[in-house]
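Changelog entry: the 2'-phosphotransferase record was regenerated in this release. Current contents:
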Amino acid sequence: MNSPGGRRQETTGPRGRRAHRPREQDRDVQLSKALSYALRHGALKLGLPMRADGFVPLGALLRLPQFHSFSAEDVQRVVDTNGKQRFALQPGEPGTGLLIRANQGHSLQVPELELMPLETPQAFPLRLVHGTFWQHWPSILLKGLSCRGRTHIHLAPGLPGDPGVVSGMRPNCEVAVFIDGPRALADGIPFFRSANGVILTPGNADGFLLPKYFKEALQLRPTRKSLSLAGNEEETECQSDPKHSPRGRMIQQ
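Regenerated structure tokens:
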């Protein structure tokens, strides 16, 4: 609206503050996060009828209070445009309508999730990588990787930005751990590939992928450099945090 003097007036809220219309991108992020929680972790708590393959009726999902402001078209857009391909939609039985699920990342048990077993060394990608942060690195170096409340440890077929890597590692990870998948497979640890290309493993009987399966480690930020996996190397100061060594231990001041 223009004022009599020709200047554009700002639209204000009920208390005189400038009103901001939520951007579609912000709504999509909000919807994606709500979908991730409901489909990966909260379906039973929310009363959603989840099938053994992880699919739930989209109509039942949209009837939940946290989804009242979203439509089926909003969900379709988020599924189609999600760069990590986190979700899948498919037609249901007559009268059921569309079904939706998360492709991986569950803490809920999903016994019939469509995962392709990797049964031979040749089935593995050339690189098998887990991304993490400095705060977790000392524990990982000592105990190995763990599921951390999920059903699987997540691995990517490369580093962020590599061709074909759409999911499996956060783009802001600080440390990359390269895994010897064939060696772990030979020791009886199963591996699977999800629908969006993430490599998953439940680890050993305790839910761990032990350090003996680590091939190498790489600092990713602020610059890339190799990290030692040895337990007795001289500690040097980490570039990304002056109080930490490349292995994440505290440096005495």
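The domain at 25-102 is CATH 1.10.10.970 (Arc Repressor Mutant, subunit A).
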